[in-house]
């Protein structure tokens, strides 16, 4: 047994040394949402470490005290049935731990699903992030610009991402700013975040979507509001407008690198939300738009499926 | 030629061609060997047509070990590819195929087969039965599983492997994005072996409910039997969901429906829901029998009765119910509201409570015991802390907000390997070593076994603990490569070294089987471990009829009662024993299912119709065929018992 513990110590040491140089991305948050998840992770690690230590101590104790080589040859272990009090303890304490973590889970889940704390009064910046094999398209409807595979956001500003996909299910993830959420072809998901430290952050699709998955990444740059406004103005001065034709070419499978356009694809290829959505609770009026190929007939079937899904 | 073009591999590589040659050579070698040694008759009469639960169990286990090496080869290839950044050993497409088949093979064709194999061998012995309730159906279960496994395994040389992950999410798995026949193989291989599993589920419930020895009430069943009963109940409720989901997937891909499409009224999210409504109970189908195995082994080698029998049973019942109420935690990130996620977060964490009860009961079983560190016990002792780590990381994943950061990362990969390897795989190896003398009449070498154990435990820790760290550092799972700048390289190399050690450990187990077959003594008596439950009251290896006389029991530890309290297990005289006949129909039907599945995968409708009709024909024929089995006469039983040195009494 000794070998094992020595060995475990070695692993932990190696791990600490290897990762000691830089903090792990998820535990190095740069905004309130990621800070919440990082705190929750630390709380759960500490709580769970207590459980592991208790089990380890009990196990080591049993193994050393009751090994056959330590017992007299004629020792006959007793017959012991369960005991109400002992079983009360081994049920009761885990229930307390689970109850505690449940409260943590509920509070934090509501927190990360809402506008970041401290930004409630602000009008959020809305960005549509849509994925196609194997790229990300970022549409800024208010600024009337669109980028491919890179994202600029102002710091200290609530950002509301509207996520959807032009094909496979992908998962939008900027570990240092917020947790993931799926982007899917038949509905729009919302993700809230805010960056509080200017800098470059890694963003990627975390959900496997075929051959180009590993490189399905994007770069996030957070900068002060004035620089962000400057950047928007520069684009309007220099970039080409995004036409439907160009956009359809962009959707072809591939990687492309970073691109910038004025205008957004939402004008001619709207996101699957509101009356364009495949699964929404809104009014069943049919839209006239040509691109409206998601669920043309808003019949009762789709409504029913929706309810089952919740 | 046009007809044959469909069988070409869409993404060929030298490795795949080498595999084709290797498969061809192995098949030729097997056929030549069987012919040369004139073993065809033996193979057909004694194994392929058998209805003996012990032989079917052993065939399941052999198949599971084969699949372990297939899935293990996939695993080593993956770790080799990611050992260094920007590696070019596998390209993206091959890597995707390899992790897809690794997942499917390990879960469906390795772990499932292993647990059903052990259940087959052990359950009837532990309840003092002659066989399972429906022996012919049992043979059909095995052969359907085997047909499914073979169908899945030929995919990479004929037509192309599935490449959409073992979770096979739509729309990625639809014909829009997965254009080869790979996902068709996935649908049909899982469908055929799934039917086999479902039949097993019904068979074992009937066996355990109706065929227990006199005196064995439900609360006097050995813990492994309890775990088998609950597992099979889960199978019967969960597998029909998979059957239907796969059928809908097949309809979408091959017959033009839109169940899981993102337009025309379909919904891709429905696949995720259906898959996990089966998929989560599935992980408890795997882990509960493992819990049963550990309960037997820890009690035996602590020389103590299992602590808290009633709470052990109750906790398994609670786990089986909760297992159906947690599936949403596999996709917390799919956009449900915070309320939905909170509810599923709580139900998921609640499973920690019954699981915790079990952990503490095992610890308390060792308390005041007399612990012997045999190889099976070493695996059980390593299981407790390692599974606890896997379990607590599961609780961490259950916190919905934190899961948004763990989801789809190596942290998750580390977690589920951390529960499945120390949980299921250790249990299966430990169970195999523990019951090996029952199966084959000799013991596996302990010293070599302990070498394998250390390689496997150390290899496991090295391979998977680093993934927790890279996961938290933002490494998504299923990436075929990464750049130097990410900093994943050193830990990934460590993972590869761990995988290599694991491979060595499994190779040592195989060597141990060979070594022990050659060198182990055969005169080991019926109870070499000083065990407690009923299966150790009959001979090693177990005669065809299991017990010459039906035993009578008064507790879950029948043999211990006989050894220590003077309980008389066998009270009656030897009488003739009713046994089932061998039958070739199960293997023939499974062969037809294979042809049916293969034809369907490639849209060969003539093959589908002919084999489909033939399957119906077989079923009709079987329905009208009377086969009442046969009797083993008293003299023959006495002769066998004398050979073993007299009846156990």
Structure explained in plain terms:
The complex is a heterodimer of chains A (310) and B (649). Chain A is α+β, with helices and mostly antiparallel strands and 310 residues long. Chain A folds into 2 domains: 32-112, Helix Hairpins (Orthogonal Bundle); 125-267, Cupredoxins -  blue copper proteins (Immunoglobulin-like), CATH 2.60.40.420. Chain A is built from 6 helices and 11 strands. In chain A, the strands form 2 sheets. In chain A, strands 8-5-1-2-3-11 form a 6-stranded mixed sheet. A 5-stranded mixed sheet of chain A has the order 4-10-9-6-7. In chain A, helix 2 (32-65) packs antiparallel against helix 3 (84-112). Chain A is elongated and about 90 Å long. Mean pLDDT of chain A is 86; it is low at 280-310. With 649 residues, chain B is mostly helical. Chain B folds into 2 domains: 9-38; 39-583 and 627-643, Cytochrome C Oxidase, Chain A. Helix content of chain B is 67%, strand content 1%. Chain B has 21 helices and 2 strands. Chain B has helices spanning 2-5, 14-36, 40-48, 53-81, 92-126, 135-154, 182-210, 223-254, 268-302, 309-322, 338-350, 352-366, 375-398, 400-406, 410-440, 446-472, 489-519, 558-564, 585-601, 605-624, 634-643; strands spanning 577-579, 630-632. In chain B, strands 1-2 form a two-stranded antiparallel ribbon. In chain B, helix 5 runs antiparallel to helix 6 (135-154) and helix 12 (352-366) runs antiparallel to helix 13. The model of chain B has no long low-confidence stretch (mean pLDDT 95). Classes of the chains: A alpha+beta (310), B mainly alpha (649). The interface between A and B is large, with 105 and 104 residues.
């Amino acid at each position: 047994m000794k070998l094992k513990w020595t060995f475990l110590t070695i692993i932990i040491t190696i791990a600490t040394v290897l990762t000691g140089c830089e903090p792990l991305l998820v535990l190095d948050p740069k905004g309130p949402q990621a800070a919440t998840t990082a705190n929750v992770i630390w709380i759960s690690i500490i709580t769970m470490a207590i459980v592991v230590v208790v089990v380890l101590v009990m196990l080591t104790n049993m193994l050393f005290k009751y090994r056959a080589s330590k017992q007299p040859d004629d020792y006959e272990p007793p017959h012991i049935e369960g005991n109400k009090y002992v079983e009360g303890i081994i049920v009761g304490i885990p229930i307390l731990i689970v109850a505690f973590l449940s409260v943590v889970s509920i509070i934090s889940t509501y927190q990360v699903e809402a506008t970041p704390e401290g930004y409630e009064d602000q009008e959020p910046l809305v960005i549509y992030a849509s994925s196609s094999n194997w790229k990300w398209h970022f549409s800024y409807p208010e600024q009337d610009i669109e980028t491919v595979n890179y994202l600029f956001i102002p710091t200290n500003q609530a950002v509301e991402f509207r996520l959807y996909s032009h094909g496979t299910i992908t998962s939008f993830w900027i570990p240092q700013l917020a947790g993931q959420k799926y982007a899917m072809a038949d509905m729009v998901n919302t993700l809230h975040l805010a960056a509080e430290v200017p800098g470059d952050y890694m963003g990627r699709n975390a959900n496997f979507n075929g051959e180009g998955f590993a490189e399905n990444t994007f770069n996030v740059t957070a900068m002060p509001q004035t620089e962000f406004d400057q950047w928007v103005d520069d684009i309007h001065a220099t970039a080409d407008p995004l036409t439907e034709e160009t956009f359809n070419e962009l959707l072809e499978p591939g990687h492309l690198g970073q691109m910038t356009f004025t205008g957004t694809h939402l004008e001619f290829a709207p996101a699957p939300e509101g009356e364009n959505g495949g699964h929404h609770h809104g009014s069943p009026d049919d839209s006239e738009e040509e691109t409206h190929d998601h669920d043309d007939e808003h019949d009762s079937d789709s409504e029913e499926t929706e309810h089952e899904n919740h | 030629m046009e007809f044959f073009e469909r069988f070409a591999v869409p993404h060929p590589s030298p490795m795949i061609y080498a595999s084709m040659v290797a498969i061809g050579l192995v098949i030729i070698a097997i056929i030549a060997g069987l012919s040369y040694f004139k073993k065809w008759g033996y193979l057909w009469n004694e194994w392929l047509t058998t209805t003996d639960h012990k032989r079917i169990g052993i065939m399941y286990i052999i198949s599971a070990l084969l699949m372990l090496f297939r899935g293990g080869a996939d695993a080593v290839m993956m770790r080799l590819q990611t050992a260094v950044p920007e590696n070019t050993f596998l390209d993206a497409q091959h890597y995707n195929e390899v992790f897809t088949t690794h997942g499917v093979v390990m879960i469906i064709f390795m772990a499932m087969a292993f647990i059903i194999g052990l259940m087959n061998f052990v359950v009837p012995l532990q309840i003092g039965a002659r066989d399972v309730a429906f022996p012919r159906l049992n043979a059909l279960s095995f052969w359907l599983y085997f047909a499914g496994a073979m169908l899945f395994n030929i995919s990479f040389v004929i037509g192309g492997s599935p490449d959409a992950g073992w979770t096979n999410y739509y729309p990625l798995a639809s014909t829009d994005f997965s254009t080869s026949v790979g996902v068709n193989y996935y649908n049909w291989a899982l469908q055929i072996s799934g039917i086999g599993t479902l039949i097993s589920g019904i068979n074992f419930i009937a066996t355990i409910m109706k065929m227990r020895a006199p005196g064995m009430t439900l609360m006097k069943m050995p813990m492994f039997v309890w775990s088998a009963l609950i597992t099979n109940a889960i199978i019967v409720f969960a597998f029909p969901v998979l059957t239907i989901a796969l059928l809908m997937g097949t309809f979408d891909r091959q017959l033009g429906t839109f169940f899981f499409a993102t337009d025309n009224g379909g919904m891709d999210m429905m696949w995720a829901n259906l898959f996990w409504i089966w998929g989560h109970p599935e992980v408890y189908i795997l882990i509960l029998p493992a819990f049963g195995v550990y309960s037997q082994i820890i009690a035996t080698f602590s020389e103590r009765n299992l602590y808290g029998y009633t709470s052990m049973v109750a906790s398994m019942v609670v786990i089986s119910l909760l297992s159906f109420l947690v599936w949403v935690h596999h996709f917390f990130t799919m956009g449900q509201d915070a309320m939905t996620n909170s509810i599923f977060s709580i139900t998921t964490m609640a499973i920690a409570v019954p699981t915790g009860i079990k952990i503490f009961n095992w610890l308390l079983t060792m308390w005041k015991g007399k612990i012997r560190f045999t190889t099976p016990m070493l695996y059980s002792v390593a299981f407790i802390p390692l599974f606890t780590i896997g379990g607590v990381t599961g609780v961490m994943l259950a916190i919905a907000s934190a899961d948004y950061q763990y989801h789809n990362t190596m942290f998750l990969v580390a977690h589920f390997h951390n529960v499945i390897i120390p949980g299921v795989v250790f249990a299966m190896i430990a169970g195999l070593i523990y019951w090996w003398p029952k199966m084959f009449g000799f013991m596996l070498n302990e010293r070599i076994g302990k070498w394998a154990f250390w390689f496997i435990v150390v290899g496991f820790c090295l391979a998977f603990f680093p993934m927790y760290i890279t996961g938290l550092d933002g490494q998504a799972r299923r990436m075929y490569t990464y750049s130097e700048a990410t900093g994943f390289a050193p830990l990934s190399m460590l993972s590869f070294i761990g995988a290599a050690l694991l491979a060595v450990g499994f190779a040592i187990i195989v060597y141990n089987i060979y070594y022990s077959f050659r060198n182990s003594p055969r005169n080991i008596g019926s109870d070499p471990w000083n065990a407690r439950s009923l299966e150790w009251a009959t001979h090693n290896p177990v005669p065809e009829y299991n017990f010459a006389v039906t035993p009578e029991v008064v507790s879950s530890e029948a043999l211990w009662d006989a050894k220590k309290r003077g309980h008389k297990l066998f009270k009656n005289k030897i009488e003739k024993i009713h046994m089932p006949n061998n039958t070739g129909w199960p293997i023939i039907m499974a062969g037809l299912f294979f042809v049916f599945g293969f034809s369907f995968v490639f849209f060969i409708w003539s093959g589908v119709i002919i084999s489909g009709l033939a399957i119906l024909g077989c079923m009709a024929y079987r329905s009208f065929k009377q086969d009442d089995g046969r009797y083993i006469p008293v003299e023959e039983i006495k002769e066998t018992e004398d050979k073993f040195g007299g009846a156990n009494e």
